[in-house]
Amino acid sequence: xxxxxxxxxxxxxxxxxxxxxxxxxxxxxxxxxxxxxxxxxxxxxxxxxxxxxxxxxxxxxxxxxxxxxxxxxxxxxxxxxxxxxxxxxxxxxxxxxxxxxxxxxxxxxxxxxxxxxxxxxxxxxxxxxxxxxxxxxxxxxxxxxxxxxxxxxxxxxxxxxxxxxxxxxxxxxxxxxxxxxxxxxxxxxxxxxxxxxxxxxxxxxxxxxxxxxxxxxxxxxxxxxxxxxxxxxxxxxxxxxxxxxxxxxxxxxxxxxxxxxxxxxxxxxxxxxxxxxxxxxxxxxxxxxxxxxxxxxxxxxxxxxxxxxxxxxxxxxxxxxxxxxxxxxxxxxxxxxxxxxxxxxxxxxxxxxxxxxxxxxxxxxxxxxxxxxxxxxxxxxxxxxxxxxxxxxxxxxxxxxxxxxxxxxxxxxxxx
Length: 416
Hints:
It contains 14 helices and 15 strands. It is of the alpha/beta class.
């Protein structure tokens, strides 16, 4: 468990802020995951009518004024809430933090769709008279908006940007923060991913056109990764942001440490717009393991990306078999089965739902797995009931996205 890196190169997670369909704190999210509770519910969206979604409920006015919420975006409000919660959780004396040495790196799947759809809908009431178009539209729709809203709210003058990486983005926020800390560009990074996806009808319409939008009479049973009866994605919103620091800085201020980033990788399929390439996913996992200096047998929990689509689930399972074989030690689980697919926030929320395993030694389940698809029948899948796995030292977190982008993050139990 000891690291070969000097403490000045070791990057640790010291604060967490989140909002999810299963709560707004790590304890709430964890409790609901272990209890097998679904956060998916009935939802109605413009033009499409009734569907299903994972919806977040948090106090937008906890850290913002009403005028800030009106002027900004849902993704911005999620980011501001999560960033402030992470800073508070980290125990930082924010008044003494040099703001020019703080970076904000937030992963997103897409941004601007919600605001553009809303503006078009509003001008349609006035015969498409563009003189009624909001002058706030441009700052709302620029790609850096969620991270930019965080800097405005917290007075951060260091670098900020969002990382458009489809559904691999949550992991990539962490990876960017790690790299910037090691380059000494910043001393503190706010990282992770956010999504406002449920507020755009277009994402629902597109998945439905693909035949990839989940349907079920019982919303809580709609998201069914690996199950024969799975029929698509449940769209969710959410956010998961963390403070990450060099170990030397975290130690100097006596910070609590959730875990240490041990390895990471990002690669591309270069093969299809939407269909996954399992060989490239396997290569991404191997690259992350190699950078961490780990054999596959070292991983205790593998958090899957699986979205409950036919080809996506099968491909990831093929990649896992290729890398991990039939190891019985590994516990494979899936968080989307509980909350739906939170897009840019997915990787971050899935990691944060699993990090408490370092303390309790339990792998949360994949729910709604009643009749496993033979092509997904991994011996390691934790089905329906949490599994006590004993000491957890390493968690591997998969996040893959459209246009063939793959990301893997490995987090380890912190030890001095």
